[in-house]
């Protein structure tokens, strides 16, 4: 395991996903941010910020919520792609997407 993304669902269930270099090779940080922005628009999601400012963290959290719990177990291909993009966009070796606490 080179990298890991954990997802904590609103009900507290936690899933840990090891991601190897081959998983992450599809994105560099800039292309990952672009993919997240495009997926966010395609999903029809809107910013929760009343000032209209969209933060990368909000995009990642809202996209993660847009997936069904069944997309995480077993991990659906599009959810895996999202997790890889999120990890690359944030530039970290590991990431926890906590939907219960609404934080990364």
Q: Can you describe what's shown?
A:
This protein is an alpha+beta fold and 104 residues long. A three-stranded mixed beta sheet has the order 2-1-3. The protein has helices at residues 21-24, 29-42, 56-66, 69-72, 77-90; strands at 3-8, 14-19, 94-98.
Can you give the mean pLDDT? Answer: 93
> How many helix segments?
5
* Major sheet characteristics: 3 strands, mixed
Distance between the termini: 20 Å
Based on CA atoms alone, the radius of gyration comes out at 13 Å
Secondary-structure class: alpha+beta
Bulk shape = globular
Q: What string, H for helix and E for strand, traces the elements in order? A: EEHHHHHE
Helix content: 40-55%
Percent of residues in beta strands: 15-25%
- Tell me how many strands there are: 3
Unreliable residue stretches: none
Q: Strands, helices and their partners?
A:
Elements: E1 3-8, E2 14-19, H1 21-24, H2 29-42, H3 56-66, H4 69-72, H5 77-90, E3 94-98
Parallel strand pairs: 1-3
Antiparallel strand pairs: 1-2
Helix pairs in contact: 2-3, 2-5, 3-5
Question: What can be said about this structure in brief?
Answer:
It is built from five helices and three strands. It has helices spanning 21-24, 29-42, 56-66, 69-72, 77-90, and strands at residues 3-8, 14-19, 94-98.
Spell out the key features of this protein:
104 residues, alpha+beta, three-stranded mixed β-sheet, 5 helices, 45% helix
């Amino acid at each position: 395991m080179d990298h890991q993304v954990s997802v904590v669902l609103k009900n507290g269930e936690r899933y840990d996903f090891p991601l190897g270099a081959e998983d992450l090779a599809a994105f560099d940080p800039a292309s990952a941010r672009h993919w997240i922005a495009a997926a966010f628009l395609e999903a029809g999601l809107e910013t929760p910020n009343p000032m209209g400012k969209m933060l990368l963290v909000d995009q990642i959290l809202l996209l993660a919520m847009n997936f069904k719990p069944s997309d995480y177990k077993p991990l659906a291909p599009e959810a895996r792609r999202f997790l890889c993009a999120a990890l690359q966009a944030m530039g970290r070796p590991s990431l926890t997407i906590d939907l219960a606490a609404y934080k990364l």
